[in-house]
């Protein structure tokens, strides 16, 4: 007779396959990222919000709540008003210049020519070179005494030595300088965005426009540019957010000068909050960027979505 | 007068010669089909006509003017692309109006012509939509309207039906042909599909390796192929070719019948070993080899199923088959047509 062994009744442990459960394992994998965001973005952000409504300075680290007094003070401060204006000029000036340079760069790189691979590699350098290093080079080019730009113009007879501009000493020229340096940093990114956009436009569409009688300009500004606009807008959002919050070029090239002419929000917040130790006012200045950026980003994303649905 | 005249057009790319001396005259109002396998140079030739590519040598004459160095916009031709190339950010109305805007046509005139073209193709109700909101067939009509609105000297179509499904393709074929006859515009139509070519073309130019192999009406191409390439490229299944003493004997599968079915005239008889047959409803395709010829040479017969008794095509056996002598075609060693064996 064949005996079939009775299975030994052994209750399976509830936790035996615990890690096989999708929601458990998923949560474990995601946890480090969430922790990272909470600790390194969330906590400092909340801290900054609190600082901005307190009277906290490094000399008097009190957590006394003062309401919106800090904000009222900075808004009525003429230096802050100038800084806010500068930030807009700096951001939109350098983005515009970067986009124009990027578009031309993309067009140059679109057609293969001898050595275009080397040029492609070289053109990405402004983005890859450490900002401190690059800015030192630019500082030398804009130097009041040794500026290569001035010396070139003097040698070519375009200007005399007495007419040589003091690039970083004149408020308007200094703003132009930080815009140029920032655009120079941004434009390889713009080239990549434009290249990605233009190469995604079907050749049939471009050919159709050519046969339909569109010349170079009409093809570019009535056909290609509108089609790639959503892609460019995404790139522009990144550019605006990064530039609006950036202080490195200003800090390294002009230190906000001359007389606050190139001071931007990031730089001002750093100066007041960290260098001068007035943490609460520094936090208030930095937080001022938030609603502005939020408006820009929400507005542009809505525009992109509308373009893509229709 | 020829609407489009190509004289010895050559196009060399660094690696290949895409067009190798095409001479072709397309009279006013003709529907000319350029038929050939993929990579034969037919699309390159079309792009040369509209000016998207420039020829290495040769002359192109459109409407009596040599246009060799003219940009596409000055040539007076319109082209419809394989994927239609509609502008996704424009409405249908603006898509159709675009070629007129580039010519600085007055606004009222543009409106009138857009109405005319959209009415012609029955797309008036789509004018305010965008291309992505249209079906494949509707997109094709919009592309046609955009090509026509300028009233071009010649309308160039590059495989316009290849993006449509099989069912839609048949009706689109009808549409294109009908409307071409109504408008009377000279049309050059590129395809690799012989059904489209035979069904639509007033004349067909068969192209292979950058050369025109034969130009003729669909009947001429099918019944009197100029060489072995044309004979085997056109027709499904292709013409049977039997090699003997360096020359080739060709006959169409539908002319290769059981001997009993031929009751009049002179014919040539073959002993046909049937290997396999396919019943396709309206016809029966029979595959096999002919005794006394190269056994690797697969021969096909296309028979009307209703009239062929089962026993005359039983697989594995030899059956007497025959071809009327009037249906036999001879080809030389170099593949060219010969008058007689």
Which regions of chain B have little confidence, pLDDT < 50, spanning 5+ residues? none
Helix content of chain A: over 70%
Within the CATH hierarchy, at the fold level, what is the topology of the largest domain in chain B? Rossmann fold
Rg from Cα of chain B: 24 Å
Spatial arrangement of strands, main beta sheet of chain B: 6-7-8-3-9-10
CATH topology of chain A: MetI-like fold
Tell me the fraction of residues in β-strands of chain A, as a range.
under 5%
Supply the CATH architecture of chain A. Orthogonal Bundle
H-E order of chain B: EEEHEEEHHHEHEHEEHHEEEEEEEEE
**Biggest sheet features of chain A:** none
Number of strands of chain A: 0
Form type of chain B: elongated
Largest interface: A-B, 20 and 26 residues
Q: Tally the helices of chain B.
A: 8
- Mean pLDDT score of chain A: 85
Largest β-sheet summary of chain B = 6 strands, mixed
Kindly provide the name of the CATH class of the largest domain in chain B. Alpha Beta
Q: Can you tell me the CATH class of chain A?
A: Mainly Alpha
């Amino acid at each position: 007779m064949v005996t079939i062994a009775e299975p030994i009744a052994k209750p399976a442990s509830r936790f035996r396959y615990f890690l096989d459960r999708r929601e458990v394992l998923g949560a474990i994998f995601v946890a480090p990222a969430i922790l990272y965001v909470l600790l390194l973005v969330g906590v400092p952000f909340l801290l900054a919000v609190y600082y901005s409504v307190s009277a906290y300075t490094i000399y008097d680290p009190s957590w006394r709540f003062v309401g919106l007094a800090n904000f009222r003070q900075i808004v009525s401060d003429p230096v802050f008003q100038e800084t806010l204006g500068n930030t807009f000029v700096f951001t939109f000036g350098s983005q515009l210049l970067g986009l124009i340079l990027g578009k031309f760069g993309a067009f140059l790189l679109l057609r293969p020519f001898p050595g275009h691979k080397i040029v492609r590699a070289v053109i990405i350098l402004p983005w890859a070179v450490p900002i401190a290093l690059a800015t030192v080079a630019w500082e030398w080019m804009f130097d009041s005494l040794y500026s290569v730009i001035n010396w070139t113009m003097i040698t070519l007879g375009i200007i005399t030595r007495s007419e040589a501009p003091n690039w970083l000493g004149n408020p308007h020229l200094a703003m132009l300088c930080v815009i140029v340096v920032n655009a120079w940093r941004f434009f390889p990114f713009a080239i990549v965005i434009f290249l990605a956009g233009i190469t995604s436009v079907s050749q049939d569409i471009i050919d159709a426009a050519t046969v339909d009688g569109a010349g170079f300009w009409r093809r570019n500004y009535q056909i290609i540019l509108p089609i790639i606009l959503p892609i460019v807008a995404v790139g522009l959002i990144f550019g605006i957010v990064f530039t609006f919050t950036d202080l490195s070029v200003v800090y390294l090239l002009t230190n906000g000068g001359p007389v606050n002419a190139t001071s931007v929000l990031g730089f001002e917040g750093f100066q007041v909050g960290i260098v001068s130790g007035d943490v609460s006012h520094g936090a208030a200045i930095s937080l001022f960027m938030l609603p502005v950026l939020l408006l820009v980003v929400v507005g542009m994303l809505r525009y992109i979505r509308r373009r893509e649905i229709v | 007068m020829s609407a489009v005249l190509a004289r010895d057009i050559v196009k060399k790319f660094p690696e290949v010669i895409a067009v190798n001396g095409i001479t072709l005259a397309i009279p006013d109002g003709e529907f000319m089909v350029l038929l050939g396998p993929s990579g034969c140079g037919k699309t390159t030739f079309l792009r040369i006509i509209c000016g998207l590519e420039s020829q290495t040598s040769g002359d192109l004459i459109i409407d009596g003017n040599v246009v060799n160095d003219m940009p596409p916009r000055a040539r007076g031709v319109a082209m419809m692309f394989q994927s239609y190339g509609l502008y996704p950010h424009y409405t249908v109305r603006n898509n159709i109006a675009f070629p007129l805007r580039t010519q600085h046509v007055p606004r009222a005139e543009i409106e009138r012509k857009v109405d005319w073209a959209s009415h012609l193709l029955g797309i008036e109700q789509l004018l305010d939509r965008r291309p992505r909101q249209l079906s494949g067939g509707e997109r094709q009509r919009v592309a046609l309207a955009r090509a026509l609105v300028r009233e071009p000297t010649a309308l160039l179509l590059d495989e316009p039906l290849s993006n449509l499904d099989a069912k839609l393709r048949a009706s689109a074929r009808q549409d294109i042909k009908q409307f071409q006859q109504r408008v009377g515009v000279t049309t050059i139509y590129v395809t690799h599909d012989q059904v489209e070519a035979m069904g639509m073309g007033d004349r067909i130019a068969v192209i292979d390796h950058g050369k025109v192999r034969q130009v003729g009406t669909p009947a001429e191409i099918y019944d009197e192929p100029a060489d072995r390439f044309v004979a085997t490229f056109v027709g499904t299944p292709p013409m049977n070719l039997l090699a003997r003493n360096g020359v080739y004997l060709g006959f169409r599968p539908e002319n290769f019948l059981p001997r009993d079915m031929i009751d009049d005239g002179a014919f040539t008889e073959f002993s046909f070993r049937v290997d396999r047959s396919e019943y396709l409803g309206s016809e029966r395709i029979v595959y096999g080899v002919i005794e006394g010829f190269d056994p690797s040479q697969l021969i096909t017969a296309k028979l009307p199923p209703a009239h062929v008794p089962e026993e005359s095509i039983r697989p594995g056996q030899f059956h007497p088959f025959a071809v009327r002598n009037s249906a036999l075609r001879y080809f030389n060693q170099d593949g060219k047509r010969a008058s007689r064996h």
